Amino acid sequence: MTFKQKRVLPGFGLALGTTVTALSLLVLLPLAALVARSGELGLAGMVRVLAQPRVLAAFRVTFLTALCAALINVVLGVTVAWFLVRGRCPFKRLIDAVVDLPFALPTAVSGIALTALLAPDAAIGRALGRLGLQVAFTPAGITAAMVFIGLPFVVRSVQPALADLNRELEEAAASLGASRWQSLLRVVLPLLAPAILSGFTLAFARALGEYGSVVFIAGNMPMKSEIVSLLIITKLEQFDYAGATAIAVALLALSLLCILTINALQATVGRAERRVS
Question: Choosing a second label site near 198 at 20 to 30 A (CA), which of 39, 140, 146, 271?
Fold first, then answer.
């Protein structure tokens, strides 16, 4: 007599079916409709739309600024997470709450606030202008906006991993003669690498699709400071729905490729860490 093996989780089949159905209705179906709409142009038509110099420039600006912002957020995010976990300050809880502020603020408010600070006629903007630097209405302004909205993703990814880190490893490294910087670079950061990569991925993905906080500070000059999201909106306002969906599908495909690549790298780092441990 054979006995049916019981699953660890009760109702697994129902949960799996519900999950797949919800994912299909909320994610896959809209994306399939997007791809189908862009197919009206045909492959040659999509290539013709995407090969336009303005479109290529928008993709270049978007991906370069998103990459720069994500890298900056890694440095700032790890630093802030380290302070929140290891630092001592009476206002640490307040700072911890402020980190999540970009999550709560409407993106338009973030863009207006940054423009009010960095515009050429604002206090900080004038000070930067005296140094020969202009941030607002340039790709640097786009990067600043993406850093603002992406920082919490890195902090919240690294903070719990750092809190769970066994400090005995650092003490062991110190007992073997390692300095604090050597312990940080050779012990702590390698152990935090999966969390850092996860935060980088989230910040990069959020920056690629950001619109509200960027559009106010970018200047939106074609070929210079125009992002892909704004170009899609412009196409829609011109009733060029096929062209807008073609650009959207290309952005979706490139974003998915980048995220899959980073996730594969994260999995590789995780496997190497488990082998070492």
Answer: 140
